[in-house]
Structures are given as structure tokens and as C-alpha cells.
Design brief:
The chain has 497 residues and is mainly alpha-helical. It has one domain. The protein has 22 helices and two strands. It has a two-stranded antiparallel ribbon. Helix 7 runs parallel beside helix 22. The longest helix has 34 residues.
């Protein structure tokens, strides 16, 4: 009852005209920013933080604006991901698997509609969980030490066997390639260059935007050019633009499970939407069995990662607000903004700053409602862009990719590497190697390495520290089962999806 009364008071804060307007502006800007690969929410928030200071906004109002940009961008990124196969963030990579496949089948409209609905469901579930369980989950999340994080990473990677269409070898090969890319740059402990080939630019490691846009967008351009050369014209008829009642009903439990997975993973500092979307997708693929068509345009392949991604974005606010621990670069910027506003996140924040905490929780629900109302009517407009002729669409996608990559660092070497990764992505598509595990390996590799080294340092080099806690043991067991299950099911001739 206390939580309910606090939430009601939070709505009193969120429904103030200024805060209501800021929630709308935040979600609108977030959606627009999310559509532009290479910019991302972290840059938008970093730019707007000094603006909030200059305007003299109250702390609660400033946080409502910045948080709106954060979770609004989660949906905005799905637009370019689904329609153009250009994911701008790691968490959107999974959506591209079935989302873009649906676009190729003339179902880009339902895919975008499902993305909006799933994001709303994920946001709603996570906000309710935030209200009810924030203090308890903060205590639980802090039990994750370096050994537990390492086990979590191993479990995430093992679950990637699902993405290889049943081929464990190809999935692990792609993951290994991504992990190798993650080692490029300075060693985090000794600062010794690794695989940099005497390039100063590579000292900072492989840029996510360069690799992702190369593997997905440029390889897509190569495929489109190949199809054009073969005389295969793109369809200009995209049928209905809205989701059917049957599709919505079939995805109900998918969205529910994705929301729960996303929220629980989002609570873990450092995990975030990337792991959440991968795990949600993998879970649904296993559950669907022979009834699913994951990888070939199954709408549940859009519902699961989108619900998980949005839920994780909201769940990440728990360690940020209750522990002062940012789980990503974006939440790190939000932490800096809070400190700049004179707010110190921690266990006492809920009691000392109830207006800020509960007002933010209420505004997040309102913001997710704004996202739904704002984007559903625009689905037809987004899809209509695909009716452009092939001679216009192909160079437009290529131009968008080159501009996005160059805008990040202003480096011509990035353009060369992006093109190289485009060739690699094209060849991987040809030989049926999944692209998504590469990105997961690149993103999570540094976290995995740091967790392992910290665990070894704390234990004095004793490997048994990785298996000491019940949480770590449970994660190791799940990792082993996720690797063994496909092999056992294949041997018994049981469909695995």
C-alpha cells in the first residue's frame, strides 16, 4: 500500500504541465535520435545536460527529460533496424534478425507496430516492477561480483547457439570472432597494445558503430546490388501496415516473458539491454520449437527483444538510483547529470528524495504511453519510405551508413574498416554464419575480460572463485544446458526451431 500511495504522489509530480511537456519532448527527441545510427542516446543526453542546467530546471524535471530521451531512443532505433537493417545500438541487433526479414516479406508495418506495442508492454511491466521491488532488487543486484558477472557472460554467449539455426559450430565461431575483435586495443591492466598493427586509432579498440554498420548495413547494400544485378527487383507493395489481432494474441506471452527477462537483466549493473534482448530472443526460439520460424520473419522474434530492451532500459534505473552504479555509458551520463543537480544516488534516495524517485517512475509510464500514441500512427509513413525505387534506396542506405560512421570520429580509416566489415558480413551471410553473435562478443568481451581478471585478483589466482557462489553455479549450469540441449534434441530428432 505504501508503494501505491507513493506512486499516486509520483503521478502528481509527473502530471504537472512542465513535467508532462518534458516527458513528451524527451520521448520525441529520443525517437528521432534513435533513428539516426551513430548518434545514440548517450550523445543526445550529453548535449542536453548543460541545457537543463542553463534552464534551471528542477532536478525531477531535468531527469524526466533525460530519461525520456533514454527509453525513447530504444524504440526509435528499431525503425532503422527493421526497415533498413541498420542497427545503431547493440541491443537492436537482435531485432534486425526477424524484423528486417519481415520487411523483405512486405510486413515492415506489422513489425514496426509490434515493436511499438512490445516496447510499451515491456515499459509497463518494468515500471510496475520498479515501483514494487526496487529496494529489494537493488540488494539482490549488489550480490553480483566479478565471478558472477563472468558466469553471466558465459551463459549469454552459450545461448547464442540458437542464432545459428541449429548450428552450434557456426554460432560459436561468430562469437569467437566478436571476442577477438573485443581484444583489439590497449590491455586494460598492462596498457600493452594488442592487435593494433601500430595504428594509433586502434588503441581505443574497435568502434561499435563501425563494426555494426559495416556487418549489417554495408553487407545489406552488397546483397541488394547482387539482387539488382540478377534482375530481382524490390517489391514496392508492402500490404497492410498494422498488426493483426491474431499476431498480437500470438505474441502476448512472448512480450510478457521478454519484459520479465529484460527487467531482471537490466537491474544488473553492466548487463543492460544487449544481454536482455539476446536472452529473450533465445528463450522464445527454444519455447516455440517447431511452431516457430525464427530468423525468417517470425513476429515473436521482434516482440521478444523489443519488450526486453525497453524493460531493461527501465530496470537499469534501479542500480543507478538506489546504488549509484551506472550499467551503461548512457546511465553513466545520467549519473553525472544527477550529481551536477546536487542529487546523490544511493539507498537513501527513495526516502530522502521521494518526489524525484516516484515522479520519475510515473513519468516513465506516461512517456511509454506517449511513445505508443506517437509512433503507431506513423507506422504507415515509415513503411512508405520503402516504396522508393531501388536506384534511390540502395545509395541512400549507403550514404546514411557512411555519414553516420564518419560523424562519430571524423576518420577516413573508419570508412575503410566499415567497408571491410561489410565484405566480411556479406561473406558470412553467404556461408550462413550468424552476424548477431559477433556484435555480442564485441560488446560484452571487455566486460567479460575485466570480470575474469578482477575475480582472479581477488582470489589470488584461484580458479574455484568462479564456482563459489550459488548464483555463479546456477549460471554455469544454465550455460552448460544451453550448449547441450540442441545436441541432445538433434540426436533424438526433436525440432528445435
Amino acid at each position: 500500500m505504501d508503494a501505491l500511495s507513493h506512486l499516486i504522489s509520483g503521478f502528481g509530480v509527473a502530471l504537472q504541465p512542465l513535467n508532462l511537456a518534458l516527458a513528451f519532448v524527451g520521448t520525441f527527441v529520443g525517437t528521432f535520435v534513435g533513428m539516426l545510427p551513430g548518434i545514440g542516446p548517450i550523445n543526445a543526453i550529453a548535449i542536453l545536460v548543460p541545457v537543463t542546467y542553463a534552464l534551471g530546471l528542477p532536478p525531477a524535471s531535468a531527469l524526466i527529460l533525460l530519461a525520456g530521451i533514454y527509453y525513447g531512443s530504444q524504440y526509435g532505433n528499431s525503425i532503422s533496424t527493421i526497415l533498413l537493417n541498420v542497427p545503431g545500438t547493440a541491443s537492436a541487433v537482435v531485432t534486425a534478425i526477424d524484423g528486417h526479414a519481415m520487411t523483405k516479406q512486405g510486413r515492415g508495418g506489422p513489425a514496426l507496430a509490434m515493436s511499438a506495442i512490445a516496447s510499451f508492454v515491456g515499459g509497463t511491466v518494468s515500471i510496475l516492477a520498479l515501483v514494487l521491488f526496487a529496494p529489494m532488487l537493488a540488494t539482490w543486484a549488489i550480490r553480483f561480483g566479478p565471478a558472477e558477472y563472468f558466469a553471466l557472460m558465459v551463459f549469454a554467449f552459450s545461448a547464442l547457439s540458437s542464432f545459428a539455426g541449429g548450428s552450434l559450430v557456426r554460432g560459436l565461431a561468430s562469437t569467437g570472432f566478436g571476442l577477438w575483435l573485443a581484444t583489439i586495443g590497449l590491455d586494460p591492466q598492462s596498457a600493452i597494445p594488442r592487435y593494433t598493427f601500430d595504428s594509433l586509432q586502434l588503441l581505443d579498440g574497435m568502434d561499435f558503430v563501425v563494426v555494426t554498420i559495416g556487418l549489417f548495413a554495408i553487407s545489406e547494400v552488397f546483397q541488394l546490388l547482387e539482387e539488382t544485378d540478377r534482375g530481382q527487383a524490390a517489391s514496392t507493395s508492402y500490404g497492410r501496415v498494422m498488426i493483426s489481432a491474431k499476431e498480437l494474441a500470438s505474441s502476448g506471452w512472448t512480450m510478457a516473458r521478454g519484459s520479465v527477462i529484460g527487467f531482471l537483466v537490466g537491474v544488473l549493473p553492466g548487463a543492460g539491454g544487449t544481454i536482455a534482448s539476446f536472452l529473450a530472443y533465445s528463450t522464445e526460439e527454444r519455447i516455440s520449437g517447431s511452431d516457430g520460424d525464427f530468423g525468417n520473419g517470425d513476429i515473436r522474434g521482434v516482440a521478444a527483444p523489443e519488450a526486453a530492451n525497453n524493460a531493461a532500459a527501465n530496470g537499469a534505473m534501479i542500480p543507478l538510483l538506489t546504488l549509484g552504479v551506472p550499467g551503461s555509458g548512457t546511465t553513466a551520463v545520467l549519473l553525472g547529470a544527477l550529481l551536477g543537480l546536487g542529487i546523490t544516488p544511493g539507498p537513501l534516495l527513495i526516502t530522502e528524495e521521494p518526489e524525484l524517485f516516484w515522479g520519475l517512475a510515473a513519468s516513465m509510464y506516461i512517456g511509454n504511453l506517449f511513445l505508443l500514441l506517437l509512433n503507431l500512427p506513423l507506422v504507415g509513413v515509415f513503411v512508405k519510405a520503402l516504396t522508393a525505387p531501388r536506384w534511390f534506396l540502395v545509395p541512400s542506405v549507403a550514404a546514411l551508413a557512411f555519414v553516420a560512421v564518419y560523424a562519430v570520429n571524423g576518420s577516413s580509416l573508419d570508412l575503410v574498416m566499415m567497408t571491410g566489415f561489410g565484405v566480411v558480413g556479406y561473406l558470412m551471410r553467404k556461408f550462413d554464419f550468424p552476424l548477431a553473435p559477433v556484435i555480442l562478443g564485441l560488446v560484452l568481451g571487455p566486460i567479460m575480460e575485466k570480470s575474469l581478471r578482477r575475480a582472479m585478483a581477488l582470489s589470488g589466482g584461484e580458479w574455484n572463485v568462479l564456482f563459489d557462489s550459488p548464483i555463479a553455479i546456477a549460471l554455469w549450469v544454465m550455460a552448460i544446458l544451453s550448449l547441450i540441449a540442441p545436441l541432445v534434441l538433434k540426436r533424438k530428432d526433436v525440432p528445435i526451431g
